[in-house]
Design brief:
Elements: H1 2-17, E1 28-29, E2 35-38, E3 45-48, H2 78-83, E4 99-105, E5 111-116, H3 118-122, E6 127-131, E7 170-176, H4 179-188, E8 191-195, H5 206-212, H6 227-233, E9 256-261, E10 267-271, H7 276-287, E11 294-297, H8 307-310, H9 313-326, E12 330-333
Parallel strand pairs: 4-12, 10-11
Antiparallel strand pairs: 1-2, 2-3, 4-7, 5-8, 6-7, 9-10, 9-12
Helix pairs in contact: 7-9
Length: 337
């Protein structure tokens, strides 16, 4: 609402600036053809051409009665952010014995997941371990625990024999000494699938979803006015179809988590998440340890658009499981490409 009010305020100032009001004045053109625009409230003139509009300046009067609204107050950490001094989760260093982790994701959907060639991966130099569903101490789910919530609703790692629900489903975690090395191995590791019966045919397009009657029942269309009458009265109508492709993961900061194994069986989780309390709850249920033994730290999040509310749980839970098994600090990150 404040943004809308600000835009309306600027609109009226703009209109007043083009009027003949003696307090504002209008635009003028000098003898060289340049536009001379009188500032709305600063008392200064600004000269610019069409080729260099970024040279224009506009200022607004501040109202003491509405402080701090309308005042040019810098963001508290703007200097840190603009200078690169601000640290995000991805910027923190691992301890000397720290390891990196990369998720193994499914490249096929609507098939049966059978196995991962773990032995072949472990023969590669620098690879320490491959974490799978068998290594999860307690609950194999990244959803917060609820009595009516089943593990299969969203598993941390699929188990052999499970139906792969989508491309990108997590199958395991490659752990090693180099981030690039584990990411390369996670992409190339041999995964065995088995075809499903026709009754479990996958949905890969909008047409497939319509035929299968697979819809989000919680999303009801919002209709305003009489659409049918409006279309009938319209002088021009256009018929056609529009298709959009999938979206790639491209946050300003990758999804990533560092899990530090502390003394006494405690864990410190540094996660790029928008929900630290739920992250703590998910890790607690996955490891089967009390929440008070898990400390979650989130200094700042580098871009999210809601995607780091729940989509950060895979990295966090996987890092926690790997840290407990290897007894080392683990940094799990998802590459942007």
């Amino acid at each position: 609402l404040s943004v809308a009010r600000g835009m309306i305020y600027k609109f009226f100032l703009h209109v007043n600036g083009r009027s003949d009001d003696k307090d504002y004045g209008g635009d003028k053109i000098d003898e060289t053809g340049k536009i001379v625009r009188k500032m709305l409230s600063s008392g200064y003139d600004c000269t610019f051409t069409r080729k260099s509009p970024i040279q224009s300046i506009r200022s607004f009067a501040c109202n003491d009665s509405t402080y701090p609204v309308s005042f040019p107050i810098p963001k508290t950490d703007s200097r840190l952010l603009s200078s690169g001094e601000a640290k995000y989760t991805l910027d923190y260093d691992l301890p000397t014995n720290g390891l990196h982790g990369a998720l193994i994701i499914a490249t096929s959907a609507a098939v049966i997941f059978r196995s991962i060639d773990v032995e072949a991966a472990l023969r590669i130099s620098g690879i320490v371990d491959v974490i799978t569903a068998e290594d999860i101490p307690a609950r194999n789910s990244i959803l917060p625990y609820k009595p009516d919530c089943e593990e299969k609703d969203e598993m941390l790692f699929l188990k052999p024999g499970d139906l792969v629900p989508c491309i990108g489903a997590c199958l395991g975690l490659v752990v090693g000494r180099s981030r690039k090395n584990v990411q390369d191995v996670a992409r190339s590791i041999r995964v065995k699938y088995e075809a499903c019966e026709d009754s479990t045919r996958g949905i890969f397009s909008l047409e497939d979803a319509i035929r299968a009657k697979s819809v989000f029942t919680s999303l009801e269309p919002k209709i305003r006015g009489d659409v049918e009458t409006g279309l009938l009265k319209s002088p021009m109508r256009l018929n056609g179809k529009v298709f959009t492709g999938g979206q790639k993961h491209f946050y300003l900061e990758n999804q990533n988590t560092i899990a530090y194994l502390e003394e006494g069986g405690r864990l410190t989780i540094r996660s790029a998440t928008q929900s630290i309390t739920t992250t703590q709850s998910v890790i607690s249920s996955v490891l089967g340890i009390p929440s008070h033994k898990i400390d979650v730290i989130m200094k700042r999040t580098g871009g999210a658009f809601g995607g780091k509310i729940t989509r950060s749980f895979h990295c966090a839970a996987a890092a926690a499981v790997a840290a407990c098994k290897t007894k080392c600090s683990i940094h799990v990150s998802i590459p942007q490409a």
